Amino acid sequence: MEYRSYNVPSGPDISEKGEQIVKSRALVRARRKSPDGGERPLKTLERVLSKAGLGSRTEACEWITQGRVCVNGNRVERPDFWVDLERDRVTLDGRAVREGKRYYLLLYKPTGYLTTYKDPEGRPTVYDLLKDFDHWIFPVGRLDLDTSGLLLMTNDAQFGERLTNPEFKVPKTYQLKCSTILSEAQLDKLRSGVTLDDGPARPVVVTRLRDSEKYSHVELTITEGRNRQVRRMIEAVGGKVLKLVRTSIGGIRIGDLKIGKHRPLTPEELSGLMRRGGQGSRARAT
Q1: pLDDT value of position 126
Q2: Are 115 and 125 in contact (CB under 8 A)?
Q3: The domain made up of 6-99 is a member of CATH 3.10.290.10
Q4: Confidence at residue 100, expressed as pLDDT on a 0 to 100 scale
Q5: How many CA atoms lie within 13 A of 254 on its CB side?
Q6: Catalytic entry in 93, 132, 144, 211
Q7: Which residues in the chain show pLDDT less than 70?
Q8: What is the pLDDT of residue 277?
Q9: Active-site residue, 36 included
Q10: Strand duo 241-249 + 147-154: pairing
């Protein structure tokens, strides 16, 4: 695996000499206060690595416990070790974890591809569709194996976290084919908000596109991102999803993007998503 970078500026060493295994978080906790008296954000070491897009949090924990990660030159074997991103220098296998340019892509995921970096069973993943892209990026949220449609990919952790935070209510629109004809009463239940096994779902916007002899074709917009949420909502009103496509994220639609292909977000698209995520004009599309 090629290690990409996430900007963690260098800072003073935790110890005065030699490589040691650092096992106490108090050393970093003592640096919470910034010179102006404010608080600096701290993150656990495994979170820094995973949010840098280097791998999953499970993989990050493995690298740390294997002794492959250093903070300011000192080997750290605790995944929950606190890191001060304004002062500490983090390395993985001797390579600095830094931030380069930010990248924001829109990918049209086909069915049959997993939204993960690698699969133990060797099944295709979305990264197989990005072989012509030379920079590490990670998916913003997920699409099921059997779901196709738009997937945002980036190396901007803050951007990804905000867009997947239900608090910001970023709309995601799906078109689906249902196993039965859905009545208006069933659609009204969706509009009012159904109860799932993990709690009540928010009310959704539902439009009947058309009905065939046996099936309903429906467009549905949600502002959450729970696991298999759309499929479970349809099941809650007595139907079953046969086909599911995500056609829009935050107002960005598929357009003429071909299935299996990707493109960068335009500056206008990125600005719109930043506003939805409460980030203003913090970033520019690359």
Answers
A1: 97
A2: yes
A3: yes
A4: 59
A5: 18
A6: 144
A7: 1-41, 53, 55, 98-100, 277-286
A8: 67
A9: no
A10: parallel
Q: What is the pLDDT of residue 241?
A: 98
Is the CATH code 3.90.740.10 the one for domain 171-249? Answer: no
Specify the residue for token string 């916007």: 205
Global pTM reads: 0.70
Q: Cβ of 56: how many Cβ atoms within 10 Å?
A: 15
Tokens of 211: 């009905």
Rounded to the nearest angstrom, the gap between the alpha carbon of residue 172 and the centroid of all alpha carbons in its chain is: 14
Q: Where are the domains of the chain?
A: 6-99, 104-166+252-276, 171-249
pLDDT at 39: 55
User: For 168-206, how does the pLDDT look when each residue is reduced to its tens digit (9 = 90+)?
Assistant: 999 999 999 999 999 999 999 999 999 999 999 999 999
Which CATH entry fits the domain spanning 104-166+252-276: 3.40.50.2020, 3.30.1020.10, 3.30.70.580, 3.30.420.40? 3.30.70.580
Token pair of 241 as six digits: 């999803």
